[in-house]
Specification:
The structure is a homodimer.
Chain A lengths: L8 E6 L6 E7 L2 E5 L1 E5 L10 H6 L5 E4 H6 L3 H6 L3 H5 L5 E4 L2 H7 L3 E4 L2 E5 L6 E4 L1 H11 L3 E3 L11 H21 L7 E6 L5 H13 L4 E4 L8 H14 L6 E3 L5 H9 L4 E3 L2 H7 L2 E4 L2 E4 L19 H5 L2 H9 L3 H27 L3 H12 L5
Parallel strand pairs in A: 4-5, 4-14, 5-6, 6-10, 10-11, 11-12, 12-13, 13-14
Antiparallel strand pairs in A: 1-2, 2-3, 7-8, 8-9, 15-16
């Protein structure tokens, strides 16, 4: 049970044949029905997609990024607005990643010490420093609903010794984040389970993170290029050591298949750039497979991107027109395509939630796989 | 009186101190209350702005471009959709420019004969040909509500002889467009008055175009770099020779001041890339002057772009946030900024229309100039 935020998460129903569950997160900015997907608004905006569109596609909670917002516009500006919600015009719940992943993926020049990490801003080359304590303080200033601990994202592949050393740092930082966190702030703090793809390290990571009594947990270091089987094993290993009554967030996942498989293993929250980034590159996901709008076969195609979809793009526009917009590099394409893919992701999990509630999870998953086996492009 | 489309345009009220009038255009896709501004959707889309946003900013009629649509996606594709309206998802009236201006401004390699103009597509280098007859036929295929005659846009500056030669071609082409036009199509055709900045040629152009009995008229060849006084003289000269009971469209104009001055001289329709292009470049127009969102003073500015504006951007976002989006090159910036400037333009003319109807034109214009004398940036 969650001693610090006792009403933060509740389970409505758990599936009888899997670990899938339908739950409710209670945040300072409203309820979130889980499982659900968080659109990625790295720099305080989901690229090309406004808050009005986010609501229309069914977004309940979105993700932003501490690292990026810390560097630009800076927490002091967001504090002027009383937090990220008013700054970006989004009144619903927000989760921020701590920036650990970005420090390691975006900053070529960095110096890691037990104290924290010093790195060069990719925006202006200036030197910046983040520690576990500072990560929590910045997220306090952002006023987000769910904060993440600062962690080190262990690269893949990594040796057992490298993974263990990295895990030890992440666990030390998790303890320091936990001590810095003020449960009275109304902000939840999630602990992150690292441990790479060594089951004994994932298990130990999950046990130690669980012992710190966070309101929720996340699995990090996934989707770095590892085979799907290793990924699923890591999820299962960690899940087995984490209390089922707390929410679980699979960071950076993923494909629609990743979401389905994650939910079946007890995950509640997901985020990934795939739907929006792929949309911008021309790939639209539909209930009959993926299509690449650049394909010349769509030049004369009067059908909506997905005839079974109720999004803004599918209600008003054809594949032919979206292809035309893409060819002309019209920013309207980026909006419509992103809206479409996000709608798909959110509807996929909203439908799965309903299936869990009505005891039809297996059927829902079977239908999903039957529909998605085709590449229609 | 308009013999071909007798109910196409009616005047509700003419101002007692100027030629300004409030009118109604009846098109196949609905009524248009004039004076009004047409957002520019050159390639079958107003860059970054969807039809939903266009409706929200008060767009009644939009402009697209025959030249661009002819080259891409091509009229045969738009014909598949039964016209441009369904292709682009805009159910309101559409006016298309004929492409004359683009042939001369965008195609370096072109060959002009009395028959028509041969030019190289800037999209793929292929050779294309447009004649007056073909311009009307393409616009038939597009199914637009108001078609424009093919004309030659006389460059500025040009000698009297050059201007006269160019005008003669435009007048010949206007006659041929007029003969090709089928009034039974439900599409209106506007004649274009050229004649450069020689009052005798503008007057002759207006007289000859008027004699061809088009449903409406346009003035072309303006806003090419000429002084404002020459531009206003050209408008006044042409207006004096055109029947007041037909609608007048000032092509390619302009600044808010151009719109006000045009309406005072009897113009009803306007189009210009200024509001949308300037928006994309960072310039937002407000009721207190223009501001450049890139200016560092806006970094911490919590005010909306224009506190007196009711657009989507001003209702939900601050100057600080729009600047942040622009810095991050987020396409959402392009949408919000374009929406804001279009809202300003449309409200400016909707307000002027109300002022004309209530006999307060002079007062409205005075207030406009008092507010707009400041550059707040």
């Amino acid at each position: 049970m969650n001693l610090n935020l006792p009403n933060f998460y509740s389970i409505e129903k758990t599936d009888s044949h899997s670990q899938a569950r339908a739950g409710i997160l209670n945040t300072a900015h409203g309820r979130v029905l889980t499982p659900t997907f968080m659109a990625v608004g790295t720099q305080g905006a989901v690229k090309a997609v406004g808050p009005d569109d986010l609501k229309a596609v069914g977004s309940q909670i979105i993700l932003s990024n501490t690292y990026h917002l810390y560097l630009r516009p800076g927490p002091e500006i967001i504090r002027l607005f009383g937090g990220l919600h008013r700054f970006m015009g989004w009144s619903g719940p927000i989760l921020t990643d701590s920036g650990g992943y970005q420090v390691f993926s975006l900053s070529a020049i960095r110096k890691l010490t037990p104290e924290g990490v010093t790195f060069k801003s990719p925006y202006d080359g200036s030197q910046a420093f983040i520690s576990p304590e500072k990560a929590v303080e910045i997220q306090n200033a952002l006023g987000v609903d769910i904060m993440m601990c600062l962690d080190e994202c262990t690269p893949y592949p990594a040796t057992l010794a490298e993974t263990e050393k990295s895990l030890n740092l992440t666990l030390d930082w998790a303890r320091r984040c936990r001590e810095t966190w003020d449960p009275g702030s109304g902000q939840a703090l999630f602990g992150i389970v690292q441990g790479g793809f060594y089951p004994e390290l994932r298990a130990r990571a999950a046990e130690e993170i669980a012992s710190l009594d966070f309101p929720g947990h996340a699995l990090g270091g996934l989707a770095l290029g590892e085979p799907a089987q290793e990924r699923l094993l890591a999820v299962e290993t960690a899940r087995g050591k984490l209390p089922a009554e707390k929410p679980l967030y699979l960071m950076g996942l993923g494909t629609p298949e990743d979401l389905i498989q994650g939910v079946l293993r007890g995950a509640d929250l997901f985020d990934c750039v795939i739907p929006t980034r792929n949309a911008r590159n021309g790939q639209l996901i539909t209930r009959r497979g993926r299509l690449n709008i650049l394909n010349s076969r769509y030049k004369t195609d009067q059908n909506p991107p997905d005839p079974d979809c109720g999004c803004l793009a599918c209600r008003s526009f054809s594949r032919s027109y979206l292809r035309h917009l893409h060819q002309n590099r019209d920013p309207l394409y980026l909006r419509l395509a992103s809206v479409h893919n996000l709608y798909y992701y959110l509807e996929l999990l909203a439908g799965l939630r309903q299936a869990i509630l009505s005891g039809k999870t297996e059927n829902y998953v079977r239908t999903f796989y039957a529909q998605n086996k085709t590449e229609i492009d």
